[in-house]
Amino acid sequence: MLLNSVSPTTWLVIPAVGALVYFFIPFLISKNPRAPGPFLARFTNLWQAFKYHEGHFEKINVDLHRKHGNIIRLGPSYYSLNDVEATKTIYGLGTKFMKGQWYESSAVPDPEIMEVNMFPMRDIKKHADARRRYASLYAMSSLVGYEPYINNCIAIFSDKLRDHAKERKRLDLSAWFQLYAFDVIGEITFSKRFGFLETGKDIGGIMHSIGAALDIMHVAGLFKLLILIQPYLGNFSKDNTFSKFVSDQLEAAKKRQGSLDAEDRTAPDFLSKLLSMPEQAKKKDSDSVISTMALQNVFAGSDTTSISLTGVYFQIVTRPEVLAKLRAEVDAAYAAGELSDPPTYAESLKLPYLQAVIKEGLRLHPATGLPLWRQVPEGGATLCGTYFPAGTNVGVNSWVMHHNPSVYGDDADEFRAERWIDSPKDKLRTMNDMFMTFGLGSRTCIGKNISLLEISKLIPHMVRRFDINLDNAEAKCGRLPSRTAWFVKQKDFHVTIKERSDF
Length: 503
Hints:
Elements: H1 8-29, H2 46-54, H3 57-68, E1 71-75, E2 78-81, H4 84-91, E3 98-99, H5 111-114, H6 124-138, H7 140-143, H8 147-167, E4 171-172, H9 173-190, H10 196-199, H11 206-220, H12 224-233, H13 240-258, H14 270-276, H15 279-282, H16 287-317, H17 320-335, H18 345-348, H19 352-364, E5 374-375, E6 381-383, E7 386-388, E8 393-395, H20 398-402, H21 405-408, H22 419-422, H23 425-433, H24 448-465, E9 466-470, E10 482-485, E11 487-490, E12 494-499
Parallel strand pairs: 2-8
Antiparallel strand pairs: 1-2, 3-5, 4-12, 5-8, 6-7, 9-12, 10-11
């Protein structure tokens, strides 16, 4: 009877008052600084979550800074920054800014695994210890030993391009770059390809599983409740196809470790090197921990490399003058006996225009499209002349910084590889300091060298052997279609291919 006596208006007022208390009161009492940005973002992370889900946040982030300046409020305690000195403070060596809550959405609720799962590891000291323990596995001096594995994949990739050329069939180069990147990671990590290149398909839906996991994680990280339940929403590491593959290769690696056949050890893969580490370094890692290390390679090294390859090669294909200059450099080096086929990494580093093209392509299309969130340490911090209390989330988006004209010039939106060659030393130093494609400081992607190795070997090989022409009217406008779910992943890089007869 009492409920029946409540008027319909009252039923509307009660939730409205509740929403007011939940969203508006915390805003009024918050010590977080006032800053320009979307109105709704002052009260809730829902605006940011919705924009993340739309899939083009990197564009939104760049536009907001161009409209409002160096500080943008994206949530009640989330601030995007665009400033050189603030970037150095947040990400520089010795920083006290730990990773923010957002990264917890990619954590696995297993203490043993979290000891080696470096991406979501927030504690600065624990991360430094883990990175120190395994850094030798990712050092360039170790990775050059993997070049024969990459050469195997380049040969298969080249055969597939040749087949499409003979059949005069167009192909989606962005998709094939991903197949290549996956199989290279398989070779490097396990001495065995997944088989993506041979089949031209996403075997077992592994690539789809990664995409589905990222769709959940990149939004869930904004909300503590979703972080807690995220492991039950989807977990790529539990993918049956991938789990069986890793399990089988781990057993094979253990058998190789016990073999006396020296030939088994001539070019040890990542897994074999991990198993060979001194006991005090690997702390008798369990199979689950070793599998996690392998998983990190696949998760971090496949999409990032394929996105980077697509970003760089799109610039080459759509700019005839860039292709002509790059091809002249590659052909001249080959004619002089200074370039193998495929080239070694050391040889590719001696081609200045190639390296400039790669770096400029990575600048204009970095793989990640969200701010790299960090938590303000105890005592607070003053950034861009504004005080931020402890616990506030601050971050810089690589897309924002890479389009900053004070760093990269008034032509920051344009592709100009020469900026990495002809800029004054002090300008070049700032450009390099703010180059965020692989992160910055102590949290720089540990797999950076793997990606650069793959890119630097494949691109000159393709430039020398194939004429590749864009076959996508929409992309001819200057950018491939893409969707952002942490990674800014392109699609529909449709091309036609001819094998060069004059190389």
